[in-house]
Design a protein that fits this description.
CATH architecture of one domain: 3-Layer(aba) Sandwich
Strand order of the largest sheet: 3-2-4-5-1-12-13
Structural class: alpha/beta
Number of helices: 7
Number of strands: 15
Distance between the termini: 16 Å
Helix content: 25-40%
CATH class of one domain: Alpha Beta
Order of helices and strands: EHEHEEHHEHEEEEEHHEEEEE
CATH superfamily of one domain: Class I glutamine amidotransferase (GATase) domain
CATH topology of one domain: Rossmann fold
Largest sheet: 7 strands, mixed
Strand content: 25-35%
Amino acid sequence: MSVHLVGGGWDPGFAEAVFRPFLAEAEARAAGAARVVPRVGVLLVADAAEAAVHGERYSAALRTVASCEPVVATVGVGGRFGSTVLNDVDGLLVAGGLTPAYLEAILPLADEIRLLVADGLPYLGFSAGAALAAERALIGGWRIAGIPVCPEEAGEDLDEVTVADGLALIDLAVEAHAAQWGTLARLIAATEAGLVDGGVAIDEATVLIVGEGGFRVAGRGSVWQASESEEGVIVRTLGEA
C-alpha cells in the first residue's frame, strides 16, 4: 500500500485523479477483511460549524469517485484524537487546515498510524495531512532568522519557519499549495538553512503517491523536489516514475 500526498485545493474536476488510487487500495484492504464497501477514516480539525461543512465536502468528494463509507472524526483546535478513530478502517485520510493544530491532534497516534501503514493501510494526507506525513515536518512560519522566505499568509499562524517531528511515513519534508501559496520558496530556504534535508512541494489538485515501487504523480499541477548539493539547493520537477 502507499502514502498519498495531496497538495490541497478544492477542484471537483480532479477528485478522480487525486482520490481514485487511494480508494482502490482501500477497496483491496476491505476485501481482505470481507467488507464490500471500504470504510475510510477522515480526521478533521475544525470548530463545529466548519467541521460539518468540511466533513461533508470530503465525504462527497470520496463518494463521487467510488463507493465507500467515510467515517469522519473531528476535534476542535487544541483537541486530540482518541485511538478509536483508527478502528476498523480500510484507509486513513488526514484532512487540511491549520497544520500546527493537526500536529497536536494527531501526534499521539503517530506510532499506531505508522504500524497500520506498515501493515498495508493506505494513507492520504490532504494539505496539512500531507505535511505531517514527513519524518521532520514543516508545519509553518514565513521567516528564517527574521528574513521573509514566503508570503506571510502561508505562515500557518507561525512567524519563524518551524520543523517538528511528524508521522515519519516518508523521509522528505512536504509542502502543499506550492504554486498557489509560494511554499516552494519556504522549502528551498529551509533546505538551504539546514532545517530539513530537502523535500517536495506539491501543487493543488495534484497527488504524489509514494509506494514500494517508487513514486507516481497525478492531477493538474506539478510536484517540485528540493535537494541539497555542494553547489546549493537543486530544484527539479517530478514526473511519472
